[in-house]
Design a protein that fits this description.
Blueprint lengths: L13 E3 L12 E3 L7 E3 L1 E5 L5 E4 L3 H10 L10
Antiparallel strand pairs: 1-4, 2-3, 4-5
The chain binds zinc ion.
């Protein structure tokens, strides 16, 4: 998707949203699941033909928060 091609339908009509901005919250946020203020901003890529959406945490500091806070998807889900 980042290279402009939809992974679902193959269309090249992929649109990129604005960079995340914590103050305006204009693009979308993922809550980390604890106290206030622990959201990470995402940048969205949307296929304008089929509507598929991909979101990326583009900030490396935010990705580090996720690495510390969230479990690997391959771990047993016992929550
Ligand atoms: Zn598509």
């Amino acid at each position: 998707m980042k290279r402009g091609k939809c992974v679902k339908c193959g269309s090249t009509n992929v649109r990129r949203g604005p960079k995340p901005n914590m103050w305006r919250n204009s693009t979308g946020m993922i809550p980390l699941g604890s106290a206030w203020g622990t959201n990470v901003g995402v940048r969205n890529y949307i296929c304008a033909d089929c509507g598929y959406v991909e979101s990326y945490v583009v900030n490396d500091e935010d990705r580090e928060k996720l690495r510390k806070k969230w479990k690997l998807a391959s771990e047993r889900d016992d929550d």
